[in-house]
Write a structure and sequence with these properties.
Layout: H1 5-15, E1 31-32, H2 39-45, E2 52-56, H3 61-68, E3 73-78, H4 82-96, H5 99-109, H6 116-126, H7 132-145, E4 157-158, H8 162-165, H9 174-183, E5 188-193, H10 196-202, E6 207-211, H11 215-222, H12 228-239, E7 242-252, H13 268-271, E8 276-278, H14 282-285, E9 290-295
Parallel strand pairs: 1-4, 2-3, 2-6, 3-5, 6-7
Antiparallel strand pairs: 7-9, 8-9
């Protein structure tokens, strides 16, 4: 994979002068450092094949959770190239830090109030496990941001807090985290930058698990006309590359009987309640969060 470090630095320096909000489906945009979806909920609630997965990359949590669940062949994609840097930084943190220190490092790196010397200390500790361009990217970004009150470094990221950390199966306890540490370097993770709306058409591989996160939610920011027909076409395009008895998951926010999916002009009834599963953790269940899951039928012989 070719990464243009200077391009990434220029784009990131522009971003941290901007508003901390969704920038659209661009090559460089604010990214989730830690997941906002309750991944552990849907990975523990369903039995599924564990051979090969396709997932959104984001900050890497989808990949880390899949590895912890026993999946070692993973294709990850994202339209946002900044995810490449965040993923490798967090993977290096997992290689280096014990359980509690890893969680602390995530909070430090996304804190507006933390001293930049703490960021640099983390960066130097994980350097042996970082691709050279990733270390250089964060080093230069931190130097650029340090001491400049006009710069909002944390606006590069969303989602790093103790609640979001608790949504991951590899962080439920120290044993789960150690399991990930032992297997993370054995997993084969391939990263591609691609547009989710068309990427499925470019793929020749098929998958047992497809995790689409809440991409469809964000389509409605960039495409206000995105509706039920578009959503079903989006899901269908990925079902075509799903193996028999495989599962496809799209995360949903604020979905319940009264409240439609955030920003999407679609109701629970439109999607079919048989395909909607609420999260079980009370704080998330009460917020009306859930996920849309479709299983591809087995081939009858």
């Amino acid at each position: 994979m070719n990464i243009d470090l200077e391009e990434a630095l220029r784009a990131s320096m522009d971003l941290i002068y901007g508003v901390h909000f969704f920038h659209g489906f661009k090559d460089y945009a604010s990214t989730y450092f830690v997941t906002s979806e309750c991944i552990k909920d849907y990975l523990k609630a369903h039995e599924f094949l564990k051979n090969r997965a396709l997932t959104i990359l984001s900050g890497g949590d989808q990949v880390f959770n899949l590895i912890t669940s026993g999946v070692y062949e993973i294709d990850a994609f994202d339209s946002n190239k900044l995810t490449y840097f965040v993923y490798h930084l967090r993977k290096a943190m997992i290689n280096i830090f014990p359980f509690q220190d890893f969680k602390k490092a995530n909070l430090i790196f996304t804190s507006a109030s933390d001293n930049f010397s703490n960021h640099l200390d983390i960066l130097e500790k994980v350097k042996p496990h970082l691709p050279e361009e990733v270390h250089e990217y964060f080093r230069k970004m931190l130097e650029f941001s340090d001491g400049n009150p006009m710069i909002n470094f944390e606006s590069l990221y969303y989602g790093a807090n103790n609640i979001s950390l608790s949504r991951n199966n590899y962080l439920v306890n120290e044993d789960a985290y150690k399991k990930l540490q032992k297997s993370i370097n054995d997993a084969n993770v391939n990263i591609t930058f691609a547009d989710a709306l068309s990427f499925s058409e470019e793929l020749s591989s098929t998958y047992d698990i497809i995790l689409l996160s809440n991409i469809a939610d964000y389509f409605s920011y960039a495409k206000p006309e995105f509706g039920l027909k578009d959503f079903k076409e989006f899901i269908t395009s990925y079902m075509k590359i799903l193996n028999p008895d495989g599962i496809l998951i799209n995360y949903l926010y604020k979905i319940n009987d009264q409240n439609p999916i955030r920003n999407l002009p679609i109701t629970k009834e439109d999607l079919g309640s048989d395909n909607i599963y609420p999260v079980t953790t009370p704080i998330f269940r009460n917020a009306g969060e859930g996920y849309y899951l479709e299983r591809k039928p087995k081939i009858k012989r």
